[in-house]
Amino acid sequence: MIIQLHRIEVISHKDMQMIDITPQVERLVELSGAAEGIVFVMTAHTTSGIVVTEGVECLERDIPAHLERLAPKDPPEGTYGYYHNRLLDFDGRLGYNAADHLKSVIGGINTFFPIEAGKVVRGGRQRVYFVEYDGPLARTVFVQIIGQKSKDAA
Amino acid sequence: MIGGIDFHTHPVLVREMVDRHPELALAARDVFHCGNNFQPLEVMLLEMDIAAIDKAVVLPIDATTSRNATVYTNEQIVEVCQMSDRLIGFASVDPHRESAPELLTYAIEKLGLRGLKLAPAMQEFFPDDPKAYPVYACAQKLGIPILFHAGLSWEPGSRLKYGHPLRFEDVAADFPALKIVLAHLAWPWVVDAVALALKYPNVYLDTSALYFDNPRDFLRYAMNQQVPLTVFERSLRNQIVFGSNNPRIEIKSMAKAVRTLGFSEECLELIFRVNATTLLGGRL
After folding, report:
1. B122 and B67 Cβ atoms separated by less than 8 Å
2. Residue to substitute from A83, A94, A97, A100, interface B, most B β-carbons within 10 A
3. DSSP 8-state code for residue B233
4. Distance from B244 to chain A by nearest Cα, in Å?
5. B34 and A93: CB-CB below 8 Å?
6. In chain A, what are the domain boundaries?
7. Distance between CA B137 and CA B76 in Å, rounded?
8. Measuring CA to CA, how many Å separate B253 from each of B48, B214, B242, B266?
9. How confident is the model at residue A21 (pLDDT cuts 50, 70, 90)?
10. B91-118 confidence digits (pLDDT tens)
11. What is residue B1's predicted lDDT score, i.e. its pLDDT?
């Protein structure tokens, strides 16, 4: 049985950004020695996400833009506000990222893929993205691999 | 707009410095009271890029007497500034110590720091306490500005009474050649702080005020309702500097809020660059 937990550091460069981490995930699976199994990917942060979608630049723009429309950082004036915009005494700062938390909830924080013959099994157009909603920041992504060396191994 | 200056940042979350000086982690958590994750300096520089900020003033606080701690020593400020030429280091000294003027002189003349940061609420002294006057005289002689924390302070144990703008009037009056910056618009006493700046041309205000709601709505309240924006635009255009108070708030967020308040482009240039350059003696 192979059980491994890896941590990938991702540094976002923009306020909102989709970062393709498929190569890192696939590399970790290949190095793990797991022939059959499953790989879980999860962000460690509540203002970021993990999204699986087609790896094209247009969607890398459309997805954050749509989430911003659903949960705008600054709601339209005179409409509504966020309770999170208050002093967070445990952080010593004002919570100005309610919308980023909401985007994370809407977009999701994790995904998983099967492992077959030592490779990540994914659809031909599927890519794994770390999605930044409150960058730039240095972020951590957990990659948990659970598998076995071959179908016959215990 | 390009090439702005953030006159008010605290490098308390810089991961490389915490790795080298573990006591800075305690200073960040227990003294400065900031609970966010430590981040590589690169992240701060990236954020400055997004906000169109070229350079940032990085501030220490010497709270030796009141807290038995420093939130960065002057030497550590020099060290972090050596990591990027986009950082401008200020010094801090403890006004309770008789040696404070000598330590300030050393920090400016030998370490190359560019100004003085004092935080009366955390350091527990009244700005008009004669005990601090030798420090002010020294700063005036050195030709450096003093950035004072003013108004409400987030840190537990810090008293508001040390931050009222009227406690700075004697300093402004008695040291007319000394440029002093009241941080955070001295909120909630914005009217008093503005009155001081109107009366004393050596009093500046920085924009690093955010105590509820969001940067846009808070600054509109403080800089358009508490005091009309026209007062800042017309009367105090040469005495306002942009400050974010990072990492208590992101530089990008405060810069966007200030830029959308309704100032003229000419005034924004003064706020984001010219006035800070003046405070720093005309060079960056």
Report:
1. yes
2. A94
3. I
4. 12
5. yes
6. 2-148
7. 25
8. 11, 9, 12, 21
9. very high
10. 999 999 999 999 999 999 999 999 999 9
11. 47
Q: Using beta carbons and an 8 Å cutoff, which residues of B are at the interface with A? A: 15, 32-37, 39-40, 42-43, 46-47, 50, 154-156, 210-217, 247-250, 252-253
Say yes or no for a CB contact (<8 Å) between A96 and B210. yes
SS3 assignment, position B4: strand
Question: How many cross-chain Cβ pairs, A to B, lie less than 8 Å apart?
Answer: 68
Task: Mark yes or no for CB contact B248/A136 under 8 Å.
Answer: no
Assess if CATH 2.60.120.460 describes domain A2-148: yes
Which domains, from first to last, does chain B contain? 4-279 (3.20.20.140)
Cα B272–B275–B281 angle (5° rounding)?
125
Cβ-nearest to B212 among A74, A85, A134 = A85
Of the candidate ranges A13-17, B21-25, B212-216, the one whose mean pLDDT is the lowest = B212-216
Q: How far is it, in rounded angstroms, from Cα B26 to Cα A45?
A: 23
pTM of the model: 0.94
Cβ separation of B43 and A90 shorter than 8 Å?
no
* Beta bridge partners of residue A116, listed in sequence order: A119
Residue B161, pLDDT > 70, answer yes
Closest to B184 in 3D by CA, of B36, B63, B7, B2 = B7
Q: Which amino acid is at B236?
A: L
8 Å CB contact of A85 and B36: no
* Interface with B, mutate which of A74, A90, A101, A134 (most B CBs under 10 A): A74
B66 Cβ contact list (under 8 Å, min separation 6): B96, B122, B123, B124
Ramachandran bin of A135, using left for φ above 0, alpha for ψ from -120 to 50, beta for the remaining angles: beta
Give residues with Cβ within 8 angstroms of A81, minimum separation 6: A75, B213, B214, B217
